[in-house]
Amino acid sequence: MSDNIQQRKTNAGDIVQEEVNIARSINNDYEEKYGFKDDVKNHIDIGKGISEEIVRQISALKNEDEWMLNKRLEGYKIFQEKHLPEWGGNLKDIDFNDIHYFVRATDKQGRSWDEVPQEIKDTFDKLGIPQAERKFLAGVATQYESEVIYQNIHKKWNELGVVFLDTDSAYKQFPDIFHEHFGKVIPSSDNKFAALNTAVWSGGTFIYVPKGVKVEIPLQAYFRINAQNMGQFERTLIIADEGSEVHYIEGCTAPTYTTDSLHSAVVEIVCKKNSRVRYTTIQNWSSNVYNLVTKRAFAYKDAVMEWIDCNLGSKLTMKYPSVYLLEPGAHGEVLSIALAGKGQHQDAGAKMIHRAPNTSSVINSKSICKDGGRTSYRGLLHMVKGAKQSKSTVICDALILDNQSQTDTYPYNVINEKQVTLGHEASVSKVNEEQLFYLMSRGLSEEEAAGLIVSGFIEPIVKELPMEYAVEMNALIQMSMAGSVG
Amino acid sequence: MLKVENLHCEIDGQPILMGLNIELIPGKIHVLMGPNGSGKSTLAKTLMGHPSYEVTQGSVELDGEDMIDAEVDEKSQKGLFMAFQYPVEVPGVHFTNFLRMAYNSRQPEGKKIPIFKFNKLVREKAELLGIEQELLDRNLNEGLSGGEKKKAEILQLAVLNPKYVILDETDSGLDLDALKIIFSGLTKLQEVNPEMSFLIITHYQRIFDYIKPDHVHIMYKGKVVQEGGMELVDQISKEGYSNFKK
């Protein structure tokens, strides 16, 4: 494998030419010529739909042990028993029998560049996404040029004892730590979609940061994107040992195209004493996708957990990153952006569970709806009896760009302790006519002016993103404003 | 020339401008004075094209071109600029980034100014006017004091370099230092661009310590009722507006 990668290390111009060739010959001699293949030569197709047999088949194909098979079967049973949630968005149209629950990486090469919708290609153009990435993002290519860069960085992490792997490999290579934490933060029984994920999970990211190690640069799925890790049912597990620090970034600003319409991930994070974890998501699934993701972190003594959650794409997203503040001094934050355009519903929010004294949390949610889109903020703030001197601040601001769009706020507070401090601010505003007039009086078009107002509205969250993501985010906002004002 | 003829305008059906005539001559400094409620600020906003102000009659020509139905941004790009009496706060929008967008909106395709070159341009203009550099790194009017907002308006004016400038009570609420920076700044801008002309809307005499108007217009009940030179200002300072209220 690495020989093949070395051979592909050419200069930038060659790479572009090569990409063109790849696109042209995608269904021909792709594997042979570019070496994209793994050890399994058989063509594996377990088809669509889900059953106990399929779950067993997935486990067998992955050569899993009894323990994991049982986890999967338990998940499947719970998935069958649980009803769809009655709240949130409309889930009735999901056809669970029309979904591929397991696709071997090599099977994914069946899609050609021609099948990718023009709209998605145009967006890549406008955002200036490099050619090599476009193929990957559109699901045409399964590996990405920067594999070589990744290998070098990987070496450095290895020296520090940092484990950064896809979850399937981690399960094989680090069974002890895997068994200890898998399904502990989010058990199968948590909700129907967590159960489904447990039954059919594949891929995802596994990170372990040893005691006291501070990972300086953000770990990005970007460097190692491959079909395994960007699956529809990926499972991510991050363990930050005592005093460690890590920042993980998933997703990207460009639309992620898929023909299968359900993405249901589970992300579990353990922040041990004094550790600090930041998890940044930029979600831009294509508009056919139901994005139903469960994300939760346990934060122990004096640990800090931050979720930065940007939801731009999908048909319906239901996602409420949560932090369980389990020991004194733990701090949790959720900073989120939701953008809902035509046909989209972003039902997103946060959960903060204060289960120890002197814990603190911040929720800051900014949502924008336009062209008939709908945003819902749904938050839970729970302070148990005994969580004395804990404090929480919740700010949720919504911006509505036109009369067809809708925004709602569902803040739930369960406060069982008197000695706590709570702050809550909520605002709903329309794009202000005086601001538009002011900006246009300086020569900006109405669309540019509205885009600028929206960028300013989300700036407090965007400034938390790494530079390249922030720039792309603003470009995307400007782009999505085109034709949506007036 | 900016030529306004027989302009009528209303807000919510209420007539405010009733047959107003005024001409702004390139390179000249015009002052517009008048008692409260005579429609001075309405004139400024109507010329710029505020959506709440409905023009019912009359014409506005910019260098011979009819501008009455033009969009706000088009007017801006054709050389009209209004310094706001109450500059609007746009949270989270960086001043210099915004101003670069505004600057580039009037450059032809392929001639957009790169960031570093633009930053240099803004710094030079701030220096010319004696405006503190800190302003460049703030958000657009967000959390600025009244004086800082007005300085930011003049800095935008300096960078965008329009031909016809309306200053809507820019002098109100300013301390002497800010007043000096802004109004002596206008003269400096005119030295750079001799075509630049001003319509300064004001209540106060104190700006005349820093700037000498070429023309003075007195407005009352939605019309310009008298035109002349500095002698009108002297007359108002002695007698108020009583003689103009016919």
Automatic annotation (TrEMBL), chain A:
One GO term of the biological process aspect: iron-sulfur cluster assembly
Superkingdom classification of source: Bacteria
Signal sequence annotation: none
Domain (SUF system FeS cluster assembly SufBD core) ranges: 223-457
InterPro entries: Fe-S_cluster_assembly_SufBD, SUF_FeS_clus_asmbl_SufB, SUF_FeS_clus_asmbl_SufBD_core, SUF_FeS_clus_asmbl_SufBD_sf, SufBD_N
Transmembrane segments: none
Pfam families, per the entry: SUFBD_core, SufBD_N
Domain SUF system FeS cluster assembly SufBD N-terminal: 157-220
UniProt record similarity statement: Belongs to the iron-sulfur cluster assembly SufBD family.
NCBIfam families, A to Z: sufB
Protein name from the UniProt record: Fe-S cluster assembly protein SufB
Automatic annotation (TrEMBL), chain B:
SMART domains recorded: AAA
Top-level lineage group: Bacteria
GO MF, one example: ATP hydrolysis activity
SUPFAM superfamilies: P-loop containing nucleoside triphosphate hydrolases
Cited InterPro entries: AAA+_ATPase, ABC_transporter-like_ATP-bd, ABC_transporter-like_CS, FeS-cluster_ATPase_SufC, P-loop_NTPase
Keywords: ATP-binding, Nucleotide-binding
Residue span(s) of domain ABC transporter: 2-246
UniProt similarity note: Belongs to the ABC transporter superfamily. Ycf16 family.
Official protein name in the record: Fe-S cluster assembly ATPase SufC
